[in-house]
Specification:
Helix content is 31%, strand content 28%. It is built from twelve helices and 18 strands. The two termini are 40 Å apart. The protein binds adenosine monophosphate.
């Protein structure tokens, strides 16, 4: 089987690495000749709207999937006429636009924070009257890793937020005074079979994921059931196939959906070493119509993103039960270059190991 992947970043790279033991072959489309999937699989170098490149990419592949959600919708529709594409395009549409996404959550009965679309300064002032302070102004599209958003705490913040974001279609959200951020990764097969990984706890800094604790500390059965119920509504409504991630705020013991990613997710990297089947393998199993693998955690893990600079390999690999993944990207401040997963049997040991690892990473890494 030949799988085509739209996007040649680290997520696509890890999908391919999970697929090789299953005898799969990969081709990817990415405009960057130095994409992380370079040398790992065949690459068609071209833009996502380049019809010639798309024809070349689709020719001879059995299935197409994507590794990032900003692939133009028209690209997916073009490919769908030639080859099977999973997950469904509707999931991509919702994943690309925060207004469509939040409206969809609302219609599915998935709790989310109050939100209003903003097209003009007048809209913003009106939305603030209705939503109140503090609030978060976000671009509807192309926002990732905390880019394209501003927190408004008082009237004086309006001008600056408008100067930096005005001109794009925007969304104003009520600020959620959450206790912590959690995410759930689910997988749904072509026959509707679903499986869920345990909820994990995520720590961001400057909008970028730094650390994931898996399973989430103090995870109750009720919270897991609540998260699975929310994501199940989304999976069913979209007739979803593949891995889907949902990010939640936990507030007073309840969950509020922040966003979803119709793809494998950074907060699921721990599954490579610490779940029976990784999110990457399960994504492939799902889109190929194969039985899903067991999603149970086989210990507890901490996943730390390697950002901006790579620590000395010997320092990291000298630690027991530590796994390093580097994506083959050149170092640049703020860039995700790899990740480290610590795997152990107890939360206490994990936390001690994390302290040890912190000594090898730039100060204040998480
Ligand atoms: P996002 O791009 O929506 O994932 O937002 C990036 C980060 O900003 C989230 O992980 C939260 O830490 C924070 N954030 C986003 N939306 C809100 C909100 N409505 N209330 C409080 N914090 C938020």
């Amino acid at each position: 089987m030949n799988i085509g992947i739209l996007g040649g970043g680290q997520l696509g790279r890890m999908i391919a690495l999970a697929g090789y033991p299953l005898g799969l072959r990969f081709r990817f489309l990415d405009p960057d000749p130095n994409a992380p999937m370079k040398r790992l699989a065949e690459q068609v170098i071209g833009g996502y709207s380049d019809v010639e490149a798309l024809r070349k990419f689709a020719d001879g592949v059995d299935l197409v999937t994507w590794e990032f959600e900003n692939v133009p919708l028209e690209t997916v529709h073009f490919l769908e006429q030639r080859v099977a594409v999973y997950p469904p395009a509707a999931a991509l549409e919702a994943g690309q636009d925060r207004l469509i996404e939040k409206t969809f959550f609302k219609t599915q009965g998935v709790p989310t924070t109050a939100f209003l679309p903003v097209e003009s300064l007048f809209d913003l002032e009106d939305a603030l009257l209705r939503i109140g302070f503090p609030a978060v102004l976000k671009t509807r599209r192309m926002g990732y890793d905390g880019k394209g958003q501003a927190v408004l705490r008082e009237k004086a913040d309006i001008r600056l937020a408008w100067e930096s974001l005005g001109g794009f279609p925007l969304l104003l959200e009520a600020f959620v005074p959450f206790q912590r951020e959690l995410s759930l990764i689910a997988v749904r097969g072509r026959d509707g079979e679903t499986a869920f990984y345990p909820l994990v706890e995520n720590h961001h800094r400057d909008g970028v994921l730094r650390l994931t604790l898996a399973p989430a500390p103090r995870l109750s059965e009720e919270l897991q059931v609540e998260a699975e119920a929310h994501i199940s509504r989304v999976l069913e409504a979209l007739d979803y196939v593949g891995v889907l991630a949902m990010e939640f705020f936990e507030i007073n013991g309840k969950l509020m959906a922040n966003e979803m990613a119709p793809r494998v997710h950074n907060s699921g990297h721990w599954t490579i070493e610490c779940a029976e089947t990784s999110q990457f393998e399960n994504h492939l199993r799902a889109i190929l119509g194969l039985p899903l693998g067991d999603t149970e955690a086989v210990g507890c893990a901490a996943m730390v993103n390697v950002i901006g600079e790579v620590p000395h390999l010997a320092d990291v690999l000298g630690m027991p039960d530590t796994h390093l993944h580097l994506y083959g990207k050149s170092a640049r401040p703020g860039r995700k270059l790899g990740h480290i997963t610590l795997r152990t049997d107890s939360e206490v040991v994990r936390d001690t190991m994390l302290l040890g690892l912190a000594g090898f990473l730039p100060e204040g890494h998480w």
